Amino acid sequence: EAGVAQSPRYKIIEKRQSVAFWCNPISGHATLYWYQQILGQGPKLLIQFQNNGVVDDSQLPKDRFSAERLKGVDSTLKIQPAKLEDSAVYLCASSRGASLRNEQFFGPGTRLTVL
Amino acid sequence: GENVEQHPSTLSVQEGDSAVIKCTYSDSASNYFPWYKQELGKRPQLIIDIRSNVGEKKDQRIAVTLNKTAKHFSLHITETQPEDSAVYFCAASIGGDKLTFGTGTRLAVRP
Question: How do residues B31-43 score in pLDDT, each as one tens digit?
């Protein structure tokens, strides 16, 4: 099966600019996650979707970050305006559903550099 | 919320030796503990996982042990090979849902 797709792979912007990332999960996967991975750290969950509904966005900085999954398939994550500390790799992951039997598969990530 | 600590942050072993990475977690309700391998510039990939109803799981050269009482779990890699060189992350979750990751261990296997 095809893996999780993300684009763009790399993005360089200046602080206070806006940026958007796109994720296409594995076909049939109901659950979609966005993680932020700062250099030298483990991934940190930003938001979790179950189909097109938000399950957990407790760690999403809602003053500048937003995400949507309108049709329960693709998802976009937006940052507006970006700060220097947003420089990180943004990983999208998907799973069949949220249960012990369902492995999370990660995409290649989008590496964001904020100057 | 859950907090996962991981040690050591770097580990260097001779090819053929064993490597052990240890993690502790804080939330006694956590019941799913996966381990991910991330090569430089690549995506994290699941290498093994363990659920709280078992104490040990093996898959060829890789094994994971879980001590629920002490709230710690460990990854054991035997007969290490250069291709095992990567960053390894442990994680914990309740029900396989939201994963809380450790800070990672950079493993270097010297040929």
Answer: 999 999 999 889 9
- A41: chain B residues, CB-CB within 8 Å: 103-104
Report yes or no: A53 at the B interface, CB cutoff 8 Å.
no
Is the Cβ–Cβ distance between B2 and B101 less than 8 Å? no
Segments of A8-109 assigned E as strands: 10-13, 19-24, 31-37, 44-50, 53-56, 65-68, 75-79, 88-95, 105-106
Residue B38: closest C-alpha in chain A:
A42
Distance CA A91, CA A106 (A): 7
Q: Using one digit for the tens of pLDDT, what is the confidence trace for A86-105?
A: 999 999 999 987 665 678 99
B52 near A CB under 8 A: no
Whole-number Cα distances in Å, B21 to B68, B73, B77? 17, 9, 9
Please tell me if residue A24 touches chain B, with a CB cutoff of 8 Å: no
Average pLDDT value over all residues in chain B:
94
| Candidates A45, A56, A106; nearest CB to B44 | A106
Under 8 Å CB-to-CB from B33, ≥6 apart: which residues? Answer: B23, B25, B49, B50, B51, B52, B64, B66, B73, B90, B91, B92, B93
When scoring B33, B99, B105 by the number of chain A Cβ atoms within 10 A, the one with the most, hence best to mutate, is B99
C-alpha B42/C-alpha B34 separation (Å) is 18
Please, which residues bridge with residue B35 across strands? B48, B90
